[in-house]
Amino acid sequence: MSGSEDKSAAGAQTVRRALALLRLIACGQERGVRLVDLERMSGLNRPTVHRLLKTLVQEEAVEQDPETRRYLIGQEITLLGLARTRRFPLLTLADPYMAELADQVGDTVFLSIRHGHDSICIGRRTGRHPIQVLSIEVGVRRPLGVGVSGVALLASLDADESTRLVRSNGARLEVLGERVEDVIARVDAARREGLAHAPVGLMPGTSAVAVPIMSAKGEALGAITVTAMAERLGAGRFGEVVDRMRQAVAGIAARWGQVSTRA
């Protein structure tokens, strides 16, 4: 390999590492992510992580909280994102169905998609019930398998691929207090049942259920999640909520097929 090829390969590696760090930092949202956790999750050594972070901070792609010393996504990334405000056609198609579902069940409805090894919430609709469970914000990025949406998305894949993805997220899952084998077991159960259910949600006293949105080609377009106070997703009401969710995802998938055919 020539010197110029060596430099090109090294440059590409640096870009990939920087983007990997940005994705990890994005998972921290407003809490931020500690340097030690970035090292553990990225698999990079401290000098490399520190060097990349220094450059990203200089370019305002990353910020460091002066009190907690945690790293957060910087304003430059936010501003760059404004250039593609219509990047998610699925959200445009799904929004009316999400609004109707939220009105029917009375609770909060989320839309999530898979991006690489992560699930990302791209939409949210609140219902009419006086207590709404706003467990995550739009833009939340989590390793696949954390939360019912990620489990539902993994369950839409074949077992070998979903297991590979979970294991590749092992270090990140460990930082979040999740065991790889537990996640795989939840995915297997979701694949059998056609949905992912967490009787105990991310917040105490809450519950959540997610159903994947499958295209006519058998590909997962995303997942719809309903979160509510636990008693509202109990045995007496659970089946009705799931039925309405399945009607919504069927409508979204059909609409997607119509638009895709015309395109």
UniProtKB/TrEMBL annotation:
<keyword id="KW-0805">Transcription regulation</keyword>
<dbReference type="InterPro" id="IPR029016">
    <property type="entry name" value="GAF-like_dom_sf"/>
</dbReference>
<feature type="domain" description="HTH iclR-type">
    <location>
        <begin position="12"/>
        <end position="75"/>
    </location>
</feature>
<keyword id="KW-0238">DNA-binding</keyword>
<dbReference type="InterPro" id="IPR014757">
    <property type="entry name" value="Tscrpt_reg_IclR_C"/>
</dbReference>
<protein>
    <submittedName>
        <fullName>HTH-type transcriptional regulator XynR</fullName>
    </submittedName>
</protein>
<dbReference type="InterPro" id="IPR050707">
    <property type="entry name" value="HTH_MetabolicPath_Reg"/>
</dbReference>
<dbReference type="InterPro" id="IPR036388">
    <property type="entry name" value="WH-like_DNA-bd_sf"/>
</dbReference>
<keyword id="KW-0804">Transcription</keyword>
<dbReference type="InterPro" id="IPR036390">
    <property type="entry name" value="WH_DNA-bd_sf"/>
</dbReference>
<feature type="domain" description="IclR-ED">
    <location>
        <begin position="76"/>
        <end position="258"/>
    </location>
</feature>
<dbReference type="Pfam" id="PF09339">
    <property type="entry name" value="HTH_IclR"/>
</dbReference>
<dbReference type="Pfam" id="PF01614">
    <property type="entry name" value="IclR_C"/>
</dbReference>
<dbReference type="InterPro" id="IPR005471">
    <property type="entry name" value="Tscrpt_reg_IclR_N"/>
</dbReference>
